[in-house]
Specification:
elongated; 0% strand
Amino acid sequence: MGASFLITLREGLEISLVLAILLAYLAKTDRRSLFPAVAVGAAIAAVVCIVAGVVFHLVVGEFVGKTEQAIEGTLALVAAALLTWMIFWMRTHSRGLSNSLHGKLDAAVGQSATAVAVVAFVAVVREGFETVLFLLGAQTPGSSGSAVIVGGLFGLGISAVLGVTIYRSGSRFNLRRFFQITGLLLVLFAAGLFAKAVHEFRELLEIEGALARPLWTVTSGPLASGWGHDFLQGLFGWSESPERIRVVAYFAYLIPVATAFFAGGRSRPAAAPTKELVTTLMP
């Protein structure tokens, strides 16, 4: 539940920001009549993503054995790679996000309301598919099904409230700090996904020996079972009895990516990278 909450909170806020930029620009250019087109495009994108996620979940759930290990390993690896790319892309390109959307809207407005709906659809569906992929990767034996859905709905609800708050408060909301904190948490989550992928591929290839032996084993307490165990497992990839190769994989990902994340943050200018985005949202 913790992982799905974090994912939808972060991704949901990005969707909220995109929609807020589109609506604010239409309002400032006296094109409020196109608001329904943005809403329709966003709604269709949400439905498409939900249906795709349910179908994929049902299809994957039918597989067992080697096929299941191959699919889950590949899914976790792709999710970790895409999540890593998204974290660094958002930090680098957030400053020019509003200008990019404005250009697409200007081109679409000259055609039809349908074109505006397509712009909103494409902008939302990209984030939506990423969210679906990350949620599928977040499923664990102790946190799946309803727990992932509940956590995801909580994250989406809070992200919607934050989106409205940002639109109304403008520069009083520190977006840069928010994305720094959630970015760090998502790096930890992606490390767990990468380690999970290595675990699945080890089982698929039947690799045994020293690397397959547990580095530690916790048999009782909150780290062995219960909500604390499930939360840490879903969010950070915790295991009460991880193979050595899984632990090595976790830190092999975490150390260089976290180092790049912090180094990139220190090298940026003092001005918040989301300043232009926030200014655009101010009524």
